[in-house]
Amino acid sequence: MIYIGLLVIMRFAGKRSLAQITTFDFVLLLIIGEASQQALLGQDFSVTNALLVVITLVMLDIGLSLVKRRSKTLDKLLEDVPLVIVEDGLVLKERMAKARVDEQDVLTAARHLHGIERLDQIRYAVLERSGGISIIPKQGKGA
Amino acid sequence: MRKQANEQRSKLFGDDASFQQNEFRAERISWVVMTIVIVSALAGLLGGGGPFARDSKTGIDSSSVSYDRFARHSSPMTLDVNVGSGSERQVRLRLSDEYLTAMNVKSITPAPTSTALGDKQQILVFDRSAPPVAVTIRFQVEPMVFGLQRGWVAIDNAAPISFAHFIYP
Predict the structure, then answer these.
(1) pLDDT confidence tier of residue A140, bands split at 50, 70 and 90
(2) How far is the alpha carbon of B169 from chain A, nearest alpha carbon, in Å?
(3) What is the ipTM for the molecules in this complex?
(4) b or e along B35-57 (b: 16 or more beta carbons within 10 Å of the residue's beta carbon)?
(5) First vs last C-alpha separation in chain B
(6) CA distance B77 to B64
(7) B123: closest CA among B149, B82, B151, B91?
(8) B169 touches chain A (CB under 8 A)
(9) Could you read off the pLDDT of B102-151 as tens digits, one per residue?
């Protein structure tokens, strides 16, 4: 139950929530861990119970990864879909605003990955399922 | 052709196909092992609830003891002693000293009216209403040891009923 609950909450938090962990995100994760600990372990603080909880969560994760391979719908629901946010140097503002990404985020990724300085050098910028931004430079404009 | 491709991948990226195959195999085996562990836990073989979690033994005087077959260290469990109606208003419950040393007794319900120390046993006395009815005395205990822990319980002068838990760390 806790696993499903946390999965739903983190999924609704959006792509960018876990891509770059800030100090606030780190504190948030610590608090979530503390808050869910009691519900996961109850009164049972034995090593056996701790191992069982870990094994159950790992197997849930493996099970879901196997199911996701068979169901594209479930894969999209659980893992999200990539989102194009820059196309031929043009910023898709509405998409970026809804995904809580700004031009600086795109330019930072562009500088890191390809040494690109300007948006018009970008063919595509894609906000990936993991929350990272990948950059496809225009031909001859890359690093 | 395939060998050449593998050698090329190995040279360029450190790709090791045979190592990876063994790793995939080990991964699959671990999934099976973990599934067995989860199924065992759901069945009650690793302590906690489940269809095989509890057992009960009945003595010749119709009293019985119901207990967890499997338990976990420092985790609460219950030991129920069911006492038949009988004729005595007072129930003298004898419990092995060795068992009580291995357990942290959190509560006894109902509370005994008096306790006494005997030879390798502790004697707990409970009052019951008249006419005497069947009662269940519940011990809430937490194991303080690992491995097999044996114990026995007896009502008045009846023969002891033996039981055992296997306690996981």
Answers:
(1) low
(2) 6
(3) 0.77
(4) eebbeebbebbbbbebeebbeee
(5) 53
(6) 17
(7) B91
(8) yes
(9) 999 999 999 999 999 888 899 999 988 877 788 899 999 999 999 999 99
β-partners of residue A90 are A87
Q: What are phi and psi of B74, to 5 degrees?
A: 60, 20
Q: How many CB pairs under 8 A join A and B?
A: 42
Task: Report the SS3 class of residue B156.
Answer: coil
Residue A17: which pLDDT band, with cuts at 50, 70 and 90? low
Token pair, residue B26, equals 């080990």
Query: Of chain B residues 35-74, which have a CB less than 8 A from chain A?
Result: 35, 37-38, 41, 46-48, 72-74
Question: Which of the 8 DSSP states describes residue B76?
Answer: -
Task: Examine residue A137 and say whether the peptide bond preceding it is cis (omega within 30 degrees of 0).
Answer: no
Q: Six-digit token pair at B30? A: 């671990």
Residues of B in contact with A62 (CB under 8 A): 31
A73 C-beta neighbours (distance < 10 Å), count: 8
Strands B77-83 and B64-68: antiparallel
Token output for A29: 């994760």
* Token pair in block for residue A67: 């199911």
| Chain B residues lying within 8 Å of A45, measured CB to CB | 74-75
**Distances from the Cα of B33 to the Cα of A55, A59, B28, B104, B131, angstroms:** 10, 11, 9, 33, 55
- The answer to whether the CB atoms of B31 and A55 lie below 8 A apart is no
Decide if B75 touches A, using CB distance below 8 A.
yes
Phi-psi region of B56 (alpha: psi -120 to 50; beta: other; left: phi over 0): beta
Q: Smallest CA–CA separation between A67 and chain B, in Å?
A: 15
